[in-house]
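hey can u run this one w/ xanthosine-5'-monophosphate bound, need the structure tokens asap thx
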Amino acid sequence: MDNQKVVILDFGGQYKELIARRVRECGVYSIILPYQTTAKELAEIAPIGIIFTGGPNSVYTEDAPQCDAGIFTLGIPILGICYGMQLICHMNGGTVSACKTSEYGRISLTLEKRDELFGDIPEMIHMLMSHTDQVTALPGNYIPLAHTHDCAIAAFRCADQPIYGVQFHPEVEISEYGTEMLHNFLYTICHAKGDYSMADYLARQIELVRQQVGDQHVILGLSGGVDSSVCAALLSSAIPGQLTCIYIDHGFMRKNESDEVEAAFAGRDIDFVRVDASERFLKRIKGITDPEEKRKRVGNEFVRVFQDEAKKHSQAKFLAQGTIYPDVVESGKNKSAVIKSHHNVGGLPEDLGFVGVVEPLRGLFKDEVRRLGRMLGLPKSLVERQPFPGPGLSIRIIGEVTREKLDILREADAIFREELGRSRAKADQFFAVLTNTRSVGVMGDFRTYDYTLALRAVCTSDFMTCEFAHLPYSLLTKVSSRITNEVKGINRIVYDVTSKPPATIEWE
Ligand code: XMP
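ok here u go:
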């Protein structure tokens, strides 16, 4: 991509993705990089501006994250937000101290100077403040730009360089004129051209794919998830007639899901291969109860089935993947402990004879992939789909997976999703889990000894942490009644009231 870029240097702030999104909404392409990125690396990327995010640390503590000091001499405009502002101050000879009165919430802010950063924003505005430290003395050649009642220096700039700091968060919605401020930074200070839009992105990627693959054939493993589906739709526009999509039905999909995926691609000029491998997968995990072992076996089998199918399409010279930007960052930088092995992030063996990999979504964030999917005419049910684990329902059945248990779970899960979807309750991910516990119940005059089903609904923005959703009792009552009446094999329903941590979202 030859768009102008803004780099967002990540100091651990919770709003980094939001900043990236706002910048893109202003028509400028942005990427998030770790705070350790060196001045040399940045110079090579040549962004038109750099934004330092907030972060949870205090700049004056020993192990507080610091950036490469060389960044301040690159001549590239910088905007530091919250911790980012304090770091600019600290690294350039100013002082940051603990606040006498911390500020949290929407605070009244007074702009002291008419600066390019503010343009014609009114003098008194309300911005989100959330800090326990503040700038108390500015570096020599810096000038204050704004204050609040409890924060004497709520914004500053370097007198002779385009380096700015703001204690407030212009990126959040509740900040008044936040978008205008970012817009001013991008257009007036960084001289952005506004050369980024989703339509441009699409047109450029189509062109790039055509250049890359020429008249060769491409193969794509389609999981039915958002990323691979959007990738397939994009490629079907770019190289009609040259794409084979292999959809492996491992038998662990939700009710009607495989048919829906097939239907979504029915009208496109692609070779859609649906492989029913459910027998194969069930056999591979027969008798397996350990969650990690289950995940690994499903993952390995997936690769084997894909390889077997790919061999039948040896004319394909390129492998397409729906890799998106967060995948790139995670696979390169994330050294955290393995809690669960996500089988769809492992990659495929290299002995399939492909000459190249096609990844047209590599620069995008999830919400942008969804937007692109809508532009490409994919149905809402696919584009807005909740995350669904690669191993599917096999890890939502605790203990051994059998066909009978899969059928029970599919029906119960469909009822829960239908009722929650119809209600006004809000949850970002929701599904049912078939526990391995059976208990005694009574139905009519008869004793039953059936499974306990757990309902899980969570609120989260990043799926790294979550809170359980506070679903109304009326909804839970209806779901419980419908499932116990309509699904044979379940006589008890429980609602999972744990957050993450300490639990995870999935049970296995
Ligand atoms: P956990 O259970 O780790 O899940 O809290 C976090 C999010 O990731 C989803 N998840 C997966 N997604 N492949 C995926 O693509 C997987 O193997 C996988 N396992 C969990 C989970 O649904 C939740 O949204």
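The two ends are 39 Å apart (CA to CA). anyway lmk if its weird
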